[in-house]
Amino acid sequence: MSKNVLIITGDAAEALEVFYPYYRCIEENINCTIASPVKKKLQTVVHDFLPEMETFTEKWAYKIESHASVDEINPADYDGLIIPGGRAPEYIRMNPKVQEIAAHFLKENKPLGVICHGQLVLTTVREYIKGREMTAYTACRPEVEAAGAIYVEKMLHVDGNIVSGHAWPDLPGFMREFFKLLNIREKASV
């Protein structure tokens, strides 16, 4: 039986963190729905580093259609959730339905993959992440810790049903671990 995975994101999501999981799910014959606060064509971005800058740069990337607004989503219909990073988590986390969806996966102990700045969404449902271990993009550490979670200085970390990744270069391992939690793979393969 095919699995159903939900990706919740919005404009200014990190392009690789949306496209890579989306296409990997399709490759594995997993039904994958992209939902955003408003059903629309989303503008993704690319973050990267330049030697002369102390922080990352941002450029526009490909657009991608969201299949549904978060208000149309019943989280009980999905086996797993992925929350990409970029700047999208900064604003989608304020949406009560996004909070409800994230809380559902944590309460029900369903596979939840969160990467880079995506952990900012989980800080709005702090009662479900208190004492949980996760990694995130380094600049998100204060928010992760303020929400009561334990920040782990690793590029990839698994704590129960949560797979957390530091940034887009960690996507291959992130997706292997997420697929293990979805029980579609016995062993990770490189």
Core attributes:
about 190 residues, alpha/beta, Rossmann fold, about 25% strand, C56_PfpI-like, Peptidase
How would you describe this structure to a colleague?
This protein is an alpha/beta fold and 190 residues long. The protein has one domain (4-182): Class I glutamine amidotransferase (GATase) domain (Rossmann fold). The chain is 27% helix and 26% strand. The two termini are 25 Å apart.
- General form: globular
- Count of strand segments: 11
End-to-end Cα distance: 25 Å
The level 1 CATH classification is Alpha Beta
Give me the secondary-structure category: alpha/beta
Number of helices: 6
User: How many distinct folded domains?
Assistant: 1
By CATH, the topology is Rossmann fold
Task: Trace the largest sheet across and list its strands.
Answer: 5-2-1-6-7-11-10
The CATH superfamily is known as Class I glutamine amidotransferase (GATase) domain
Percent of residues in β-strands = 25-35%
What's the CATH architecture name? Answer: 3-Layer(aba) Sandwich
Tell me the series of helices and strands, N- to C-terminal.
Answer: EHEEEEEHHEHEHEEEH
Largest sheet: 7 strands, mixed
Mean pLDDT level: 95
Helical proportion, percent range: 25-40%
Low-confidence stretches: 186-190
Work out the radius of gyration.
15 Å
